[in-house]
Design a protein that fits this description.
- By secondary structure, the chain is of the alpha+beta class.
- The protein is built from two helices and six strands.
- The chain has a three-stranded antiparallel sheet with strand order 1-4-5. The protein has a three-stranded mixed sheet with strand order 2-6-3, with no helix packed on it.
- The longest helix is centred in the first third of the chain and has 80 residues.
- It is elongated and about 120 Å long.
């Protein structure tokens, strides 16, 4: 191969490489634009999800508030009726009905009372006091001081209880 042919071949290869480089640069620009678009879409998605989550939270609070206001209305009616009666049984019945309404409201929102009977369970009970007792077996709940509650199975407040212990356990 002579010098002129070699120069021609090198020019041809140079042109081919320039064409490949140009195609690669165009592809890189397209990928860069696509990446920027995807990044912007993702940022928009994150902002939309935050806004939607906040909206869902607000709607849940509003739904709970509307239901709770019915309970408040009944309390106010009960207080008003107490002014005009001395009948303790009707007052007690009004309080019990309102309590029942509160318990059902909580249940409808996934909040349930923890059963605090039988053996002490530190995952759902909090021992506030212990008492020596032969009447109860050790580690048995003797008294409920404050009811505990779960929300969809998760403890949001443990039940506060008094627990029996054997006499020799207390030091």
């Amino acid at each position: 191969m002579d010098k002129d042919q070699l120069i021609e071949q090198l020019k041809k290869e140079n042109e081919e490489l320039k064409a490949k480089l140009q195609k690669t640069e165009e592809a890189a620009k397209k990928l860069s634009i696509l990446y920027q678009t995807v990044q912007k879409d993702f940022e928009d998605y994150k902002a939309r999800m935050i806004k939607e989550r906040e909206q869902i939270k607000e709607e849940a609070i509003e739904k709970f508030a509307k239901a709770f206001l019915e309970v408040v209305d009944n309390f106010e009616k009960a207080i008003e009726s107490f002014k005009y009666t001395n009948d303790i049984n009707s007052i007690l019945q009004g309080i019990q009905m309102t309590h029942y309404q509160v318990v059902n409201l909580l249940k409808n929102f996934g909040i349930e009372k923890i059963e605090a009977e039988g053996d002490f369970n530190p995952q759902i009970h909090e021992a506030i006091e212990t008492i020596k007792s032969k009447e109860y077996k050790p580690n048995q709940i003797v008294k409920i001081l404050q009811h505990g509650y779960t929300y969809k199975g998760k403890v949001i407040r443990p039940a506060k209880v008094v627990v029996s212990v054997e006499e020799e356990e207390i030091t």
